[in-house]
Amino acid sequence: MYNTPQKLIAEFLGTFALIFFGAGSICTDQYLHGAGGGLGLLGIALAHGLAIAIMVSALGHISGGHFNPAITIGFWVTKRVNTVDTILYWAAQLAGAVQVLIGADGAGAKENQRKRSKEFRDQFLRRVVHR
Predict the structure, then answer these.
(1) Position 105 pLDDT exceeds 70
(2) Domains of the chain (ranges, CATH numbers)
(3) b/e for 90-110, b at 16 or more Cβ within 10 A?
């Protein structure tokens, strides 16, 4: 049996990977689309699907593999997870997702890479979050 900190770390890592590869595929598609190419909807869907499949396979036995607050609330509503664990899972998931955006600037990256990372992040926020 795994303890709560181990479960929270698994949720953090799983959510981080899901957002990193999912949002990263969207940003990559937009970047390549400007150059005449792109991943397309299928590539973006595959990135999300593979990220969640790999993380659930790797970490699901530790925390249940929620990696999404909507899944966690479903478990809470059906009383499979108690209220305290639900709030802790949400905090870990939020921290994992936010860490992707914070890390997008890249510690020690060159100025040009930082500028591109910031442009990708801003473009993601404009196109996906603010719809």
Answers:
(1) no
(2) 4-129 (1.20.1080.10)
(3) bebbeebbebbeeebeeeeee
